[in-house]
Amino acid sequence: PVPIRIAVVVSGSPAWEDAGSLTREPRGFPMHAANPIGSPTLHAVETVELRPGYNISRVIKGGWQLAGDNGSVDRAEAVRDMEAFLDASITTFDCADIYVGVEEMIGDFISDIRRRRGAEVAGRARVHTKLVPDLGLLERIRPEDVEAIIDRSLK
Fold this sequence. Notes:
By secondary structure, this protein is an alpha/beta fold. The protein has helices at 75-87, 102-117, 119-122, 143-154, and strands spanning 5-10, 13-18, 47-51, 54-57, 60-61, 92-96, 126-130.
């Protein structure tokens, strides 16, 4: 079996650890450096090609916790963490229409990266969202309802 490694963010500083391990021991690499992938202590997260020319990281940063349903969210810290994930080659971010404010937060993050670090770095980010209609609407949801929700997500 191949050992699985995951990246976690502890107080804004990612640390590598073996999956299943309960310890969080930082391995000592700068996450906001210009090119952390070149660091000998940081290994790129594997990617998978979903379609020709469109790759995503095999580890995806979920966004549900950023909606604030489980406590307050420091928006500035969340955006810094997104940059740390991007620098750690976790380039794919998950959100949904019901994660209120998360799509906008990720959009702000990408805009900030584009402004500060350029289009090439910002272009590494992949955002995947999903539609989660109310259970009671499933029998009568229409294509135009789905299109309206998608349009709202794209803003």
